Amino acid sequence: MGMCLFLLLGLASVVQAASAPDIQLWINGKKISSAVPPQMVNDRTLVPVYVVKDAMGMNVGWDSKSQRVTITGNSKKIELVINSKKAKIDGSTRTLDTAPVIISDRTFLPFRSVGELLGMNVDWDSKTKSVHLTNATSEKVDKPTSGVTAVKPIAKVASITKIQQTEQGFMIVADAKVDAKTFTMSGPNRIVMDMDKAKLNLKNGSVTNGQQFDTIIKTVRYSQFAPEQVRVVIELDGKASYTVTPSGNNLQLAITETSRNPKPPTTPPPVVTPPTKDEPDQGTVEPAPAPVPIVPLATKDKVKIVLDAGHGGKDSGAVGNGLQEKDLTLGMAQKLAELLRNDSKFELVMTREGDTYPTLQDRANLANKEQADLFMSIHINSGPATATGTETYYYAGGSGKDYANIVHKHLLKATGSLDRKVHTANFYVIKYTKMPSILVEIGFITNASEAAKMKDEDFQQGVADSLYAGIKEYVNTH
Ligand SMILES: [Zn+2]
């Protein structure tokens, strides 16, 4: 017992946590008051176990030996392990963006992730610093304070002016607030968004009705479902979770792949690299391939890099301020290609050289077939008009973490934008490429000033220079 307590205290000192008393937590329209303040770890809100138990009404079990928290409810069973980002939901494995932790002898669970795993809608309102979890099937009810007669304002009928593709899903652009209910249907798996008091009035820059994708999103359809109701249906090629984040009048729908229907890429799944020192071994993995002697990049004669300009051809990527993502990514990729071609250390392969459309699978397959040492995909972000900044992604199950951190450091200096940090994601091209792979999001095409900068040739050259510097630093140190 004494040993156990010692261990727990030991763990507690490792976690960079700060209490976050000013964050408001809401569950199905009810504000949660917690005697123990939530904690912030890596920008994520973690709540004490009893919030999940009492406020969400879940059954919570704890096995101290295996450090395992089991949550049952909403006809789901979720298993979480302290300090592990791997979670199990009804037997299948998911990666969380932050792990459960023990702080001062108390177990804290990631609020947002638990809600998502339970199939709840998760909304973040940055103005009031509130996280809202809502049961997907339950209606949001604004409860009037007792004794006060609620006068329901007559809601204006909103025009849906754009259904825009974003990196992680779609953005619904409206000219007034819309009340959306989002839920899932199966056979085939779909995410359905019903917006009340809304009319379709689409302008340029929307996805076409019935447009096909080759990601976890198979196709998107939309219709004026009822005189004042717009329905958007996203058909999935497998299983996915989603979040809806309101932003002004707009709604951001982010879709995260859980599993893909069995139509695997022609190459095997990513090779699992040994766990790095700060990540615990994460359970079952694919059988390890025959060991290949690892030659440090710094000592190699040639480092082969596959460079991917995001989107292209029929896929414009995000659009905004008169620009298309596919043109900006190509402009930057071509400038970076020039630098790499003039450096005898590198052998360059590009996924596209012009306005063509290789599928995501084509791009990942090319990198694997070429047995590239490094992969980089260049993208431009989209979001609400006020969103700005630079971010870099790597796949949590891959080997791109150091590469992402080093390139991001250089890129940020070139863009001079808000640091939106390095994150993990399941984007296809970084998930299914076997070498260290990253995806950079230079800035936001939907922000007028960032769009103007990114269109500028000198700025593009600066970005290319910084990516080149990042690649070189990574190669020299790995
Ligand atoms: Zn993109």
Automatic annotation (TrEMBL):
Keyword Signal set for record: yes
InterPro entries: AMIN_dom, Cu_amine_oxidase-like_N, Mao_N_sf, MurNAc-LAA_cat, N-acetylmuramoyl_amidase_3
Pfam families to which the protein is assigned, alphabetical: Amidase_3, AMIN, Cu_amine_oxidN1
GO annotation, biological process: peptidoglycan catabolic process
Biased composition (Pro residues): 262-273
Signal peptide start-end: 1-17
Ranges where the record places region Disordered: 257-292
Listed GO CC annotations: outer membrane-bounded periplasmic space
Domain of life: Bacteria
Any one Gene Ontology molecular-function term assigned to this protein's record: N-acetylmuramoyl-L-alanine amidase activity
Annotated EC: 3.5.1.28
Keywords, ordered alphabetically: Hydrolase, Signal
PANTHER family per UniProt: N-ACETYLMURAMOYL-L-ALANINE AMIDASE, N-ACETYLMURAMOYL-L-ALANINE AMIDASE AMIC
Name of this protein: N-acetylmuramoyl-L-alanine amidase LytC
Gene from which this protein is expressed: lytC_2
